[in-house]
Amino acid sequence: MSAESIQVEVTRDARDYRSAIWLNYWHGGGWLWMVAMGLIGAVVSCLLAEPWESPVVEAAITAGLVLGAMFIAHAITILLTAAGAMKLPGAREPVRYAFSEESLGVSSNVGHGTTNWVNWRKAFENRRVIVVRHRVNLMHILPKRQLSAKQQEQIRALLRRVLAGRVAFMEQRT
User: Fold this and answer.
1) Residues 17, 32: Cα–Cα separation, whole Å
2) Are residues 102 and 167 in the same domain?
3) Which residue has the higher pLDDT, 72 or 104?
4) What residues form DSSP beta bridges with 171?
5) Domain check: are 42 and 59 in the same one?
6) Suppose 168 and one of 24, 31, 59, 124 were both cysteines; which one would form an S-S bond, judging by CB atoms 3.0 to 4.6 Å apart?
7) Is residue 25 part of a domain?
């Protein structure tokens, strides 16, 4: 294990926030609510169907409508959340991170702090960002375009060690 910390500085834009919020949504199980509501709608539709009508067709149509409406509602919510996040103090300012075996240190023009890894829930990525998520659903967003390939791999390796099994990185999906 390395005793040295990995130091990076990043600045996020609206696309990074949207990407991270979508990613958090899918990794956080929010999509399960959409499926559950679609299934509930399908069951209710079957129960309310007239005997001469096809309850299966009605259930499928109802489930599709519920899922579609929920997806659109969630997309709008995510866009509004990202827009709101961009208005917060320091949202567009540089943030400095210090990743070590013991903790994650964060410093910006609005504050600074260090948190031990036991308080961090998971880490995941997509093509645009690496997200490190705290237990209270606080996210730190690292835009990949601002990290060298070496920094990305160092951060992934460290997160694999300190979050043991709670990471979902792209190269693990292939």
Assistant:
1) 22
2) yes
3) 104
4) none
5) yes
6) 124
7) yes
pLDDT higher for 172 or 61? 61
pTM: 0.73
**Whether 101 contacts 157, CB under 8 Å:** no
For residue 1, tell me if it sits in a domain: no
Give tens-digit pLDDT for 95-110. 999 999 999 999 999 8
Cβ-proximal residues to 37 (8 Å cutoff; 6+ apart), any chain: 66, 67, 70
The residue range of the domain holding 25 is 21-86
Closest CA to 110 of 95, 99, 132: 95
For the beta carbon of residue 26, count every other beta carbon within 10 angstroms.
12
- Could you tell me how many helices (H) and strands (E) the chain has, helices first? 4, 8
pLDDT bucket at 69, cuts 50 / 70 / 90: confident
Least Cα distance to 141 among 76, 74, 86 occurs for 86
Report the pLDDT value the prediction gives residue 174, as an integer from 0 to 100.
Answer: 38
